[in-house]
Known about the structure:
Elements: H1 3-15, H2 22-54, H3 57-68, H4 70-81, H5 86-103, H6 107-125, H7 132-172, H8 174-190, H9 195-201, H10 206-226, H11 228-240, H12 248-253, H13 259-275, H14 295-310, H15 318-345
Helix pairs in contact: 2-3, 2-4, 2-9, 2-14, 4-5, 4-6, 5-6, 5-7, 6-7, 6-9, 7-8, 7-10, 8-9, 8-10, 8-13, 10-11, 10-13, 10-15, 13-15
Amino acid sequence: MSNSTETGIKAFLRRKDVIFSAKRYGIDALGAMAQGLFASLLIGTIISTLGEQLGVEILVQIGTYAKAATGPAMAVSIGYALKCPQLVLFSLLAVGGAANTLGGAGGPLAVLVVTIIAAEMGKIVSKETKIDIIITPLVTICVGVLVSIACAPAIGSAASAVGSAIMWATELQPFFMGIIVSVIVGVALTLPISSAAICAALSLTGLAGGAAVAGCCAQMVGFAVMSFKENRWGGLLAQGIGTSMLQMGNIVKNPRIWIPPTLCSAITGPIATCIFGFKMNGAAVASGMGTCGFVGQIGVYTGWIKDIAEGSRGAITAFDWAGMLLICFLLPAVFTWLISLPLRRNGWIKENDLKLDL
Length: 358
């Protein structure tokens, strides 16, 4: 290929805003996928569970319809992050439905991969012909559905297999895997990537899901309490029920501030798996949410209700509630604060190192 042709292709793709980058696909698109999951599967699960508990049938129906839109909601969210034109964006509804259905348990990852391909192809042909209203949706939907048929089952199976392997390993070695899962998912929560989308893509539930919840709570509650001196109540709420990602700028300046919550997650993870048998059997996306809007705790609770309905659990006990309270709130607050004390005394964490612009 000549340099002029190559330059022409690059210019065309740039004009179409087709940018092949890890940030766009691995951070922007993945994070957007999580938003689609929240707005469909997660909120639908919460609404339907609330309806079941209160005996309000209409809420159960509302939740069922919301959950049914999971694939399309993820696809449109991804398309929005990729800055798709309207015709491409709306056409992704069909693509998301196909990819999620054919992907099975690993549907979210299949939706991510397939939607990226379909969206970029749709953007390439968008507004290039006089019959754009036919060509753009035709290309977007056909490419998306054909790729779904060809690849979604394999992508979904692979993602499900990885998730199953992690869950199996956690059941087999709850102490070591409790540490590994808790630390990795917790770190992912604070990084500018979506821990929720990762957990959803891997269908991470059960004991591994509980360890993931523990790790996320360690980061969120840990940073909130550790930085209370600098950020007071606004910081406590913004990080504790918002996101610890707010600290990323400070972490870049001084990575040592990340030590306390990360060490805390290495402690609370195995406590969750080995002592409390803490499981998250709700929607997998909740495993990567921690205390963000209390979604992690809602996921654990809906999992309890689901287990009772299936007969695998007798009832919700005081021990279960104590485990949730300790793992999600009290232990992260106490452990992170204690671990931070010597770091502050030794100057590893200095005055205002954790200060946020709130």
